[in-house]
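Case 369 in the screening queue. Each case pairs one protein sequence with one candidate compound; here the compound is zinc ion. For every case the pipeline is the same: read the inputs, emit a complex structure as tokens, and attach any notable structural observations.

Predict complex for case 369.
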Amino acid sequence: MVKVREVMALMEEMAPLHLAREGDNVGLMLGSPEGEVRRILVCLDVTPEVVEEAIARRADLIVSHHPFFYRPLTRIDFHETQGDMIRRLILANISVYSAHTNLDSASQGVNHFLALRLGLKDLKVLVPVKQEKYLKLVTFVPEGHEGEILEALARAGAGHIGSYSHCTFRVLGKGTFLPLEGTSPFIGTPGSLTEVNEYRLETILPVSRLAAVLKALQEAHPYEEVAYDLYPLENQGPVWGMGRLGFLEPPLTLKDLALQVKERLGVTQVRVIGEGKGIVRKVAVCGGSGAAYMANAKAAGADVLITGDVKYHEARQALHLGLALIDAGHFATERVVVPALAEYLGERLHQKGVMVLVSQQEVEPWSVV
Ligand SMILES: [Zn+2]
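Case 369 output:
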């Protein structure tokens, strides 16, 4: 069993809240961070069928991609669909957490998994939203405590460089302090100047991990007042953003790619703009409704954009741009994230006795006749 807030922390590690588009509604939608979780149901949309499924499968928490509350609520009428879902969820003590545009832009989010599912190589972000910034953290640790503090900092997300963790540097020196009245120092006595052998321990951390790293430092450090310095760095961090660009190895004709998309996303049809025999190699993808990124895809040299929800005038615009399009639908281009999200949560939570389930009740709303 874990608390809802532990699942929230894992979700925010995968899909940091600061990546959400302005005006989006993400995070805990319903419930309490202190609620207990033994079973999680992951889905794209919270629908009446999914609520029914969550109750039947005894889930305590639903994690969805599309926000359960998107427009402001004006009433909770039990005779309306949403009001009834809210009533049933509260009665069954089920919480709801949603990660939307922050999950689209996450390094391991909707677009990443869509590109992987479609077999693209050498992935890059199509439209950058933000770039991670780094800080240098320097702290002063009494001799003998450096190992446990190093470990705590590394576990909280500091000291990661590429594929290396626990990257720190330390040098031994003399620390001084004079505990004032009312203190209870770990070393020394109030009113007298104390000299201690201390390590200056330094490491790097992404700004997005700052709160967690400082909390870990405070908890692991033996001193009553922990001395530390934070320096902004110019190091360029990873880029987060919408869509992905990648390559097909080997290149395919547009028609063969369309057939491959159909198969890999498990859809009965895709709509295509462009010459079927044309060869495509550089591919842009954007899960959900990505037609707004057509010009970005073209400018980045993509031969084709794979997305969903393409409207008539957008299709015309693609023709004018000379960009091929494959519309595989909003649902199929985003649903790829659901099993990936379930696997991520499952890996981190199964040792704590939490079962993570993938919704089996949600399906593509469209049918083809
Ligand atoms: Zn969507």
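Case 369 observations:
- The mean pLDDT is 96.
- Residues 133-232 form a domain with the Alpha-Beta Plaits fold (CATH 3.30.70.120).
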